[in-house]
Amino acid sequence: MTHWFHRNPLKATAPVSFNYYGVASGPAASKICSDLRSSRARLLELFTDLSCNPEMMKNAADSYFSLLQGFINSLDESTQESKLRYIQNFKWTDTLQGQVPSAQQDAVFELISMGFNVALWYTKYASRLAGKENVTEDEAKEVHRSLKIAAGIFKHLKESHIPKLITPAEKGRDLEARLIDAYIIQCQAEAQEVTIARAIELKHAPGLIAALAYETANFYQKADHTLSSLEPAYSAKWRKYLLLKMCFYTAYAYCYHGQTLLASDKCGEAIRSLQEAEKLYAKAEALCKEYGETKGPGPTVKPSGHLFFRKLGNLVKNTLEKCQRENGFIPNPNQRKW
């Protein structure tokens, strides 16, 4: 089953030379600075390299972060921080607020910002893989795995590194709790979309699919609520995506719940459930149009034309018609038999 996911742009950064004349004077120190410069450049290149895979990304990220640790932690493994932590100024843009950079003279800020981009890369890799026409079982597992890794990175940055910043995260910017939480929840919701698609392919019980879809809709609602207090100029497009996915998966839940009711010969209740699915699908379709017209970070696409969206519309229509047909076949108990 093919998927469509909204993605915000990657963070951009200013070049860093890591030249410390008079500080890093020995050949070993110069070698480390040279390795830092080249490993950072390599990692930044991979973010936009479409041939990059998770193994390449992991190796490049490990290489850079292992060297960067020397600027954060003391080499004698004490609890003290490195004397080099504040020697270099780092500049990074924001995923929502475009080309307006934030700058901090702090290696921890660099670790967090680069780690944030690594997590974003995993979400973009998952999106590319999931958007293919025929996603294989192995590819679906890779999508699920990549989204879980991304969520884990965001969570680790929030809990273990962002609290160490000397300068607190600015309101409404990437490193603030509301945005980090929204990214984490979105990853969880999209990973569950893959689970739902797999459950449908394996023809699991409609009741199970309905429960998964309802839970997924709740994830998207929670993510939207997390962003509700942000400036609309930056968050409106992202929020349209979250709302349309919430309506979409609530419609899914009503559709499969209707199938469960139909199997129990509760045709009247099944019809009402499918009619509710029809309303929510129409609402999601309207939100798709609004998403395409809303300015802000993210791709300019028409989600309503995507295969994943059209398939649900056909499923709701066909299931409702089936319910109505079967409801017409139910004999009237008051009718006289001759």
From TrEMBL:
<keyword id="KW-0175">Coiled coil</keyword>
<comment type="similarity">
    <text>Belongs to the BROX family.</text>
</comment>
<dbReference type="Pfam" id="PF03097">
    <property type="entry name" value="BRO1"/>
</dbReference>
<dbReference type="InterPro" id="IPR038499">
    <property type="entry name" value="BRO1_sf"/>
</dbReference>
<feature type="coiled-coil region">
    <location>
        <begin position="267"/>
        <end position="294"/>
    </location>
</feature>
<dbReference type="InterPro" id="IPR038898">
    <property type="entry name" value="BROX"/>
</dbReference>
<feature type="domain" description="BRO1">
    <location>
        <begin position="90"/>
        <end position="338"/>
    </location>
</feature>
<protein>
    <recommendedName>
        <fullName>BRO1 domain-containing protein BROX</fullName>
    </recommendedName>
</protein>
<dbReference type="InterPro" id="IPR004328">
    <property type="entry name" value="BRO1_dom"/>
</dbReference>
